[in-house]
Amino acid sequence: MVKLSDIKSGESATIVKIQGHGAFRKRVMEIGFVRGKRVNVILNAPLQDPIKYSIMGYEVSLRRNEANLIEVIPCKDDTATEVADTNHLRTINDSDPVTQAQHESNKINVALIGNPNCGKTSLFNFVSGAHERVGNYNGVTVDAREECFNYKGYQISIVDLPGTYSLSAYSPEELYVRRYLKDEIPDVILNMVVASNLERNLYLTTELIDMDRSMVVGLNMYDELLKSGAKLDYDALGKMIGVPIVPTITKSGEGIPELLDTIIQVYEGKHDTVRHVHVKLGSEIESAIKEIKDSIKASSLPVLQFSPRYLAIKLLEGDREVERMLCNQPEHKEWKSIRDRWVKHIEEVCQEDISSIIASEKYGFISGALRETYEQGEEPRNVKGTEIIDTIVTHKLFGYPIFLMIMWLMFWTTFELGNYPKEWIESLISWLSGIISSYMPAGPLKDMVVDGIIGGVGGVIVFLPNILIMFMFISFMEDSGYMSRAAFIMDKIMHKLGLHGKSFIPLVMGFGCNVPAIMSTRIIESKSSRLITMLINPFMSCSARLPIYILLIGTFFPNHASLVLMSLYVLGIVVAILTARLLRKFYLKKDETPFVMELPPYRVPTLKATLHHMWEKGEQYLRKMGGVILMASIVIWILGYFPRNLEKSNEEMTHQELIEQQQNSYLAKIGHFVEPVVEPLGFNWKVSIAILSGTSAKEIVVSTLGVLYSADSEETSLSDKLTADNPQTGKPDFNPIMAISFMVFSLLYFPCLATITAIVKESGSWKYGAFSIIYNTAVAWIAAFIVYQVGIFIS
Ligand code: GDP
Ligand code: MG
């Protein structure tokens, strides 16, 4: 076998095949290295890297380790004086090199991999006609044996490798198989799995999928599966995992011709099912993988036989073999330190070692894939706890009420239980504001601290307990594994919207905060589904909008709090659904590629993990307080404080003077300017200001109201101030109908700047950010208009 890297400067060669992991092969083929094409070597000095080539008239360069994975036939070239290596001469005859390459590329090397006793040797014997001992015990196959035969014009060479349950390189067999895959680089991996024990057998398959190499799965002992009365939709399963699956009975030879045909199709790149899927491993591990993978990709790609994702996973597992492959790389230290940091973090949070977490996530992938394609036979099996719970919570009938109950519990706890600590914080803040009032000398500074900072930031910080409770629920659902089940039962419904069940998780997370939710859409493989999920996410009412609801519901609808709160969330969901349907209809066509919905095993989340995840989110909230909200409160206060007509501080003014002062402020001018636009929705100029300022972060809506109404009356709480009579109009600024219209508008309009930024970043285009701003605000206006006008009409 001659490699492209062996060809000297000035000589040329014809390409026979390209080895290595799928993404690498694709990239190399895209730049022109296709079978049968002739390459001229421009510059290949022994210590030179990269090597320069010209192919199809273009000049390209490849690294030495890349050229090493391209198999070629050297061409006799008139300009080349002599072919030094006589070995090369053996394969060169008078026929032209393209036919020659064609001939060479008809050789397919197949590696047979599978658990012990899955029928590898039986298959090997069937195709080779040999009579090796077939046994029903471990270790019959000691080392690899190879057999060559001709099939439909191809020369297929099959290697029977020792049986392994995984590729973790603990046993000599596993190590042997791994080294074989790395050094011999078979063209196609034939993974035999036992049909009657799929869950366990597919574990090895997930490891092979990570490698991203050409592969076919032989579903062996299919007779036993049929006998047990079970059903498996292997075509659907194959499409989900991106690997063709062919049922076989190697004992009798049934299905073997089909299996060989499939191997040829896969080798030729002509099988539609082939696709590289990611066996998803949970959000934290995925973040770790991404960081390591990006670093590996940015380096000189040390090992091209395996995908960077595979290397990253193995590094996380602390795999010694991969460590050895990579240890000469200059970036090795950096990768190790990224790895160590993540492993420490993940193990601390989950209280479990990383290898077992990865393993159980993989089993989650498998059981998710099987749940949709496998139907159990009559024969009773012993069921595990996970399966018992799963049959209940993913039940066709009970699944939904259970889910709704959990959601309702979440909202109830958020509102009802959260109110106690909220009141404590409220009294703490009024105590603090009292102290400052009595100790600070009167003047603009004091006005700013009391009205601007405490009025603004304090008005929002009181909602921290409610928000933490909601985050705790979301974290608990994620960590326990329930979230995946919820996604699972929602799959059908989501399909009706033209989305995928997986879109459901970012949508629920959106109730917490749209920004991480939009980032978590990365779990969705389909591009169009991902985009739609991102665009409808802002309609999932995030926790920043919660203060607005809690304030207004507490003021106007204290007796129907949970109901009103839930209705608002439902309204958001309905708008999201309609938007998704519209987008599918007019903009993004549907794609039907099936994906696995992982069902990771249930875990009782450790208190530490839940609190940690809750805190991660709560911390962002507090940081926002200190940053954006503080700044915005001060800016709003300044705009409302100036220009000053009287040489007095706010405190020294009479109530009438104060109101006049505010009426003439810059803020009022801005507010009055936009007022006509929002008047049909029942909003006055103060509300317009709150809405405008809420575009930076929706918490600021409440803090702005806090600042604007702080001077208005003698009442202490904002809620009382809103219902107090406005001395100018003689009636309160807020009433129940206007409150609903305001909540609806706040729910739907302009997502906050952070969300817009996330959408632009994740979608890769500012267009979608602009769409969100315009579309959402228009929808909000229309919805609030309908609510207000209808409300006034019927009241
Ligand atoms: P290996 O360990 O993977 O090489 O598996 P073997 O080829 O040695 O087979 C293990 C056992 O499974 C033997 O007893 C075979 O007779 C049996 N076997 C192989 N293929 C089939 C099949 O398709 N159906 C059934 N029922 N048994 C099979
Ligand atoms: Mg064997």
Roughly what percent helix? 55-70%
Average pLDDT metric: 83
Major β-sheet profile: 6 strands, antiparallel
Cα separation of the termini: 87 Å
Classify the beta-strand content into a percent band.
5-15%
Low-pLDDT stretches are 78-94, 135-141
Shape: elongated
Number of continuous helical runs: 35
Ligands present: guanosine-5'-diphosphate, magnesium ion
Give me the secondary-structure category. alpha/beta
* Rg from Cα: 33 Å
Oligomer: single chain
Strand order of the largest sheet: 1-6-2-3-4-5
Strand count: 14
List the helices and strands and how they pair.
Blueprint: E1 2-3, E2 12-18, H1 22-30, E3 38-43, E4 51-55, E5 58-62, H2 64-67, E6 70-74, H3 86-91, H4 97-104, E7 107-114, H5 120-128, E8 145-151, E9 154-160, H6 172-183, E10 188-194, H7 198-211, E11 215-220, H8 222-227, E12 231-232, H9 234-241, E13 245-247, H10 256-267, H11 283-298, H12 308-316, H13 320-326, H14 332-350, H15 354-373, E14 374-375, H16 385-393, H17 399-417, H18 419-439, H19 444-461, H20 464-480, H21 482-496, H22 504-509, H23 514-519, H24 527-536, H25 546-556, H26 561-586, H27 607-641, H28 655-663, H29 666-678, H30 685-693, H31 699-709, H32 718-723, H33 736-748, H34 753-763, H35 766-794
Parallel strand pairs: 7-9, 7-10, 10-11, 11-13
Antiparallel strand pairs: 1-6, 2-3, 2-6, 3-4, 4-5, 8-9, 12-14
Helix pairs in contact: 7-15, 9-15, 11-12, 11-14, 17-20, 17-26, 18-19, 19-27, 19-31, 20-27, 24-26, 25-33, 26-33, 27-31, 29-30, 30-31, 33-35, 34-35
Bound molecules: guanosine-5'-diphosphate and magnesium ion (MG).
